[in-house]
Amino acid sequence: MRFLDAQGFAWQAVEVSSADATLAGTLYFFSGGSTRRLERYPLDWRACAWDELDRLCRRATVLSADLVREEPEGVA
């Protein structure tokens, strides 16, 4: 699923299922050279509005990042 974050950056969210059926999957977020991973997320994440996907993305662990993507003050 593709969405725009609050700063206007385009992201793609992709769910990767675990090979072990007893484990939850992982939600990855990709944008340019940035990759983030979220292991605990709503099962109905595909139905989330863009602002909720943005919140999930900001909660995710940064695995790699573009050179610099400055967040406006007050955005966390």
Verbal overview:
The chain is mainly beta and 76 residues long. The chain has one domain (2-18, 25-64). It is built from one helix and five strands, in the order ββββαβ. It has one helix at residues 50-59; strands at 2-4, 10-16, 26-31, 34-38, 61-64. The chain is globular.
Characterize the main sheet. 5 strands, antiparallel
Mean pLDDT: 87
Count of separate structural domains: 1
Strand portion: 25-35%
How far the N terminus sits from the C terminus, by CA atoms, comes to: 22 Å
Question: Which structural class do you get from the secondary structure elements?
Answer: mainly beta
Number of helices: 1
Helical content class:
10-25%
Number of strands: 5
Which parts are unreliable, with pLDDT below 50 for 5 consecutive residues or more? none
Anisotropy-based shape: globular
